[in-house]
Amino acid sequence: MTNKTAFTEEEWGMIEDAAFSVGLTASIVDLNFWNYDREIQGLDEAMGEAEEVFKGNELIQDLMTQIDAEAEADEPAEQETGDLEYLDMKGEQIAEAELKKIEKVVSLVSEKATPQEAKEFRAFLYFLAEKVAKSGREGFLGLGPKGISGKEAAYLAKLKAVLGI
Hints:
The chain contains six helices and no strands. The relative contact order is 0.20. The longest helix is centred in the middle third of the chain and has 22 residues, at 91-112. The protein has one domain (6-163). With 165 residues, it is mostly helical.
């Protein structure tokens, strides 16, 4: 079984970033004031659910254990200063940049994990993104029904292609 010890510290940081990236990007791609809090809460809830859904995958469990420990210690994950490049970008542009990073992480995990673990990791990333997209509300002032917007659906389709699912 593949776990955190199979990766360098830098690689593990990329894997941790990917878990947040897919969810945050699902929110940012169609960012609006009314849904942002709901979708961030959706990411938190999705991570909690993922611990149960993917409980047989040691890689995902190690990742979730670390994220939980950082949250309990109130230690924010380290952010690279390179993220400032996104300040002048629109949601779709950010999504394209993040998808390239996700592609690298998927390749890394596929190299070091078993085929089954890599498949489950890809499913895990999609699970997080889809849960975030579904947690927002559409319509005027975000008062409409829950649902996935057109921009979120386009991002999820691109994510599926990158993940190979």
